[in-house]
Each structure stands twice: as C-alpha cells, then as structure tokens.
Amino acid sequence: MRALSFLTILSLSSLNASANAVFPVSGKGLSLGDNAMHGGLSPSYANPALPSAIQQLPSSTKAGGAINTGIAIEYGNVDEIFRIIDTVSRYLKDNGDNGGGDDNGGGDNGGEEPPPNLPELPSNLPYTPTLKEILEASPEFQQWYKGVESQATFFAAALAIVSQEAYAKAYAEVETPMQLSNNFLGGVLNFGFNASATSKAIGIVDDFDWDGDHANAVLQEILELEATDPITSYELSDDITLTVNPATGEVDLDFTNDSLLLTRAAEVLEFHLNYSKSIVNNKHGSMHLGVRPKILNVGLAQVDTRFGELSDSEALFNDIRNANYSYDSNLSLDLGLYWAAKNYSLGLSARDVFEPSFYFPKLDIERYKKRHVIRQLDRHQKWQLDAQVNAEANWYSTNQRWMLSSSYDFQASSDAMGDQYQWFNIGAQYQPRSLFIPDFRLGLRKNLVGNELNYVNIGTTLWRFLYLDLASTIDSVELDGQTLPRGVGLSLGFGLNF
Fold first, then answer.
1. d(CA 43, CA 436)
2. pLDDT per position as a tens digit, 28-48
3. Is the separation of the CB atoms in 478 and 81 below 8 Å?
4. How far is Cα 137 from Cα 141, in angstroms, rounded to an integer?
5. C-alpha span between 225 and 247 (Å, rounded)
6. What's the pTM?
C-alpha cells in the first residue's frame, strides 16, 4: 500500500493550479477536452469567444453557475521503484564510508527478495583491503575487486530503471464558472475562479559508470607509491574513490553518487473575467470575439533528497507535506475567435499570450558535484506559461441532440512540473429531450509530446445539472501487485442555469 499512500499524499499536499494543467479535469472538459459543449454552463470555456456563440444554440445558457471538481493522477511503476530506491540508498550508506565489511549491517539485504529486473543483489564488500594486498594483487584483493565491480553493475542497472520509471504525479482542481449576463455592452460577461494543485516526484539519475580498464590503470598508479608519499585519492570511476595512505597501508573506499528524488508542488489561484461578443452576423452564421484577462497567484515548492541521504523512501512524505512555498502574482490573457453556423462551428483560441513566468525556491546545489545533475536542477527553476494556439471543429445534428467534436493544440506547452503537453481530442455527445434520460459523452485524447499517453474518456449528465466524467489511460503499470491504468481522472460537477 506504500505506493498508493504516496500518491494520496501527493494529491493532498496542496490543493490549488489551473493554468496549463495535465488536462482539463473538472466538468465536461474531462471527457470532451477543449471543445464547445452545449447544454449547460461550460466549465471556464476553453475558447473565450464561446460564451457569445453558444447563445445561438436552443439549449443556451442565459445566466447560471457551476461548481466543478476533479482529480487526476499519472505514475510510472512506482511500486517497483520504492524497493529499488530503498535498496540503492542502503548500499550507498553501508558502503559509502569505509568500503564495506561484515560489520556494515547491510550485506544480506534484510532477507528481502531483490527488486525485479536487476542483476543479482550483491552482498557488501567482504572487507577493506590493505595497500599490501593491492600491491601484491592477492586472492583476497581479487575477491574485493570483483565485489566492487558487482556493486557498480548493480547500481548502474538500478539507476537506469529509476531514470525511466520513477515519477508520480497528482492533480486536483476546483472551479466555479459564473455567467453574469448575456447582454453586457452588447455581449456576454462571464466570471471564473479556479483553484487547483499539481504535485510530482521524479528521479534524477547520476549514471553509475564502471570502467574496468580505467580502474585497472588507476591500480597501476598505486603500484608506484612509496611509503613516504602523501595520502592520495584515486577515482576508480566517477562514483568510486579509493583513498590510500602509503605510510600506514590503510585504504578507504567511498561510493558517491548524486542521484536524487526531486519533489515539486504548485498551487495556482486563477481569477478571470470573460467578455465575448458577436462581430459578424449573416445568413451563413456568425463570428464571435472573446477576451479573457486573468490574474494568477502561484505558489511553487520543491524538495531535493539524495539517495544516500534517504533512510527510507517513505521519509519523503514529511518533506512533501512541510514544503515551503514561494508565492507570486502575474497577469495573463486568453483570446478567441469563434464561427457558429447552424450545423457546425469552428474555433481558434490563443492562451496565455503574455507568457507570465514564476520561479521555484532555490535549491542548495553546492552539495552536488556532477554537472549534468546540476544542469537538470537548474533547467526547470523557471516555470513559464507558454502561449498556445488551439483550433476546434464541431458538427451538430439538425435537432442539436448529437455533437461530434475535435480539437488540436498547435504547440507544446509545459506545466509547472516541467512536463510537456500537446493534446489532440475527438469526442461525441448526445443530449436527449427528456430531463429524466441522462445524456452521455465519449472522447479520446492523445498527448502528442512528452509521455505520449492515450486517454479514453466517458461522461454523463443527470437531470441536466449533475456532471460525472471519468478518464483512463490505455497504458497500464504494476501498482501494489495489481495491473492498473497508468493515469486516471475523475470529475464531479453541479450546475444551475437561469
């Protein structure tokens, strides 16, 4: 249950972000994406021009409000990852100070089964060799040398898995769209408040590279030492240092590695006004223009924990809960155009055209020595809301009961966690005449960049005011011994129209 507990704490560690989310997770947007949705108040209206255009539909909303909530999670094979991280952390601790020995307490792995997909779990190094044994290349030294090589191979394989699979992400959202007037200065006025949160834990890996030829070359240098030479440190690899005291014959082995778990969280409060108006009307249809100024209040937090500093992966939970946030506010703007005809509609919108930026609290990077790790930590210190253009197309049946829709993002956009999203959506919706027959929605969503996940989405509306939507990835992972979807989303909403 540890993996499930981890995801739960991620989702509850903060409760507020809406800009550039994993995907729309509240209201009908979970099923249909960034498309026109008739029959009730559309959550936040992805296209700012839509409120004016939707007034032409028979089921249009003159005024109303809604409360929509949603949660979503995505993860790798975190069940396996916890065991691997715990094992690597223990070995870095046990062998990091004195090179091993029977008294280190970690050689038998506590009786646990080795994590899957790894080489055979190595025991602790048999002992710390003396300089005399190294110089003589004794059988004991050969045994020690093979033990070092075995552990290096194990670390390399374990960290390779962590680099591919070690992440867990949670997203939660609450939004309250309100349509205030359908005749404000000749147009439609909407107001919205969103509060949502994203948390993610990822593994940043310092590759453990064992080069036997280089290690042997270093040992050849040690052969030339004299008793009068000073204490000298030699790098058997980037992560294994051998310190030799020629005067006493003492040898010390130190495992060092900059691999770490980076946990991030973002809280975003969004307040926006949405004004839309018809600018062209003729027998073929009407063109609508929309503008949505936004105020964003963003809180960002991050915690970095090296594997060698972990007593147990569960120790991360307190760090996540107690993280300090850095808050800042900024302005953004969405623009939209919408062409509405009798049986079809076309939309074009631009989000976050001001591209506001926010910054995570600084980390203490001086304690890391590997440049590629430092670069990864520095790379995402800034979160910029990328401008993104979206197009949508919809077809309506003559009686307005059926709708087919599609939408496409022209550019990739990064969320606060540094993950890229560029969505392509297709969907269908049916709305019956009877109030007592639920309508239904079905959608497919694909991320064209980043994790490239595919989602299947379904939803229904009960009595025209209660929304329930579900989303699930086609891809699956092993979690607590069960095969589960790699990502899931759930939304529940309540809306009233006047």
1. 22
2. 667 776 665 554 444 446 788
3. no
4. 6
5. 10
6. 0.75
